[in-house]
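Example protein
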Amino acid sequence: MNLTIIVGSSRPCGVSARVVALVRRHLGEEVAVDDIWLKDYRIDYCDADNACADQDCQVQDDVGQLVARLDRADAVLYLPVMHAYGTNSRFQAFLERVGYGFLRPRERPLRDKLAAIAVVGRRYGHTAVFSQVALNVLLNKMILVGSGFPPCFQTQLAHDPEAEQALRETLDRLCEHHCRLNPPALATGKPERILRPIQFQKG
């Protein structure tokens, strides 16, 4: 499985970096992890001209590069940072550009990719941010995977065992669902069919 992490933090050595390290440590070498730090890309604000209903977005920035990296992933872990009870502005711009305009004329190319969410913030508002990103995941017709409790990391804690456990269980669920959606090939070399073809009556 190829997992891409979208990191909203502007701090290369903060809590988000610890979360990325935890992901790599937990998954080991069995999963290829690609972490995208939004701070390294130019992401302009959506101009809301609604022209993307019929044609590719005309805003010239790095969102196309980001989407290309996401397109190569089997699963995506969204890792926003909470600012003022919402996502930080760079992550918000990313959600608007990717979730609203950029992917719409392309018929949602992230459709059916697995997605999970972990939120980094001080103390209050984690679940509001989680819900916002979850709606964006559903807008792009992705498959949202969770473990019961959302991984919400509190920045004032040196260690957050509960959040770490929730993240580990979420990662395990991502791997589990990836295996279910991609069963091993049979002896014939052809993948096993999960759904039977629909037979229509002639008439």
Remarks:
- The domain at 2-181 is CATH 3.40.50.360 (Rossmann fold).
- The longest helix spans residues 161-181.
- Residues 151 and 164 are 7 Å apart (CA to CA).
